[in-house]
């Protein structure tokens, strides 16, 4: 698999990665005569990351990303003896610029890296199932946020300008899903992505 010499003169690259996205959950409770509770429980969903970048030198690279993922949420609210539960589809689209720090020079076949970046992130939710209960379900979410994305990964160089990449990333934003609930939650929204795919060097 790792036979052949890597092409050291290549400065640009493009990647296509796919995998699994996991969202963090949140709950809130309001202990008063009404005894209000709210929560949402996310499921794992598909994720996609398309990127292109350039090697600045042996150690630093920059890349521009388009990222997408979709997750199913079960939203629950309880107010005294009344309640509501409904499934929602949550999708995220992001355009993010990353700075990558590699720990081995470009001539190496195995190159672990760290990255950090930011950009714009669109979060949208919509109802995906019937309403159970007597309360009005929470509204749909459609907002744009400024995220922080950090990732660790590894590039395995192959032959003829191709390679393999694994990446584990965490994207952190404010949590509009929690704010749409009654009572609103307070935790930030974290999007964890396990991604695998190919790298093409130019």
The CATH topology: Porin
The stretches of 5 or more residues where confidence is low (pLDDT under 50) are 1-8
Provide the spatial order of strands within the biggest beta sheet. 1-4-5-6-7-10-11-12
Helical fraction: under 10%
SSE series: EEEEEEEEEEEHE
Secondary-structure-based class equals: mainly beta
In DSSP terms, counting alpha (H) and pi (I) runs of 4 or more, how many helices? 1
What is the end-to-end distance? 20 Å
CATH level-1 class: Mainly Beta
Say how many strands there are: 12
The CATH architecture classification is Beta Barrel
How large is the share of residues in beta strands?
A: over 45%
Quote the average pLDDT.
Answer: 93
Number of domains: 1
The geometry reads as elongated
The Cα radius of gyration reads 21 Å
Taking the sheet with the most strands, its summary is:
8 strands, antiparallel, barrel
Walk me through the topology.
Elements: E1 12-23, E2 26-30, E3 36-42, E4 45-55, E5 60-79, E6 82-102, E7 110-127, E8 132-133, E9 142-145, E10 148-157, E11 162-173, H1 176-179, E12 189-201
Antiparallel strand pairs: 1-4, 1-12, 2-3, 3-5, 4-5, 5-6, 6-7, 6-8, 7-9, 7-10, 10-11, 11-12
């Amino acid at each position: 698999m790792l036979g052949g010499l890597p092409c050291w003169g290549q400065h640009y690259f493009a990647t296509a990665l796919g995998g699994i996205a996991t969202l963090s959950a949140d709950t809130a409770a309001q202990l008063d005569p009404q005894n209000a509770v709210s929560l949402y429980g996310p499921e794992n969903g598909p994720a996609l990351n398309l990127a292109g970048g350039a090697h600045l030198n042996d150690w630093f690279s920059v890349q521009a990303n388009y990222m997408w993922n979709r997750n199913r949420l079960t939203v629950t609210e309880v107010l005294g003896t009344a309640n509501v539960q409904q499934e929602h589809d949550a999708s995220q689209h992001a355009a993010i610029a990353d700075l990558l720090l590699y720990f081995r020079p470009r001539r190496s076949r195995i190159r672990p890296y760290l990255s950090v970046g930011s950009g714009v992130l669109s979060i949208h939710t919509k109802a995906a199932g019937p309403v159970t209960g007597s309360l009005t379900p929470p509204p749909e979410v459609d907002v744009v946020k400024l995220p922080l994305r950090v990732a660790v990964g590894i590039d395995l160089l192959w032959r003829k300008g191709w390679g393999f990449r694994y990446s584990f990333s965490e994207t952190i934003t404010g949590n509009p899903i929690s704010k749409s609930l009654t009572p609103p939650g307070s935790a930030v929204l974290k999007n964890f992505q396990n991604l695998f795919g190919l790298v093409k060097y130019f």
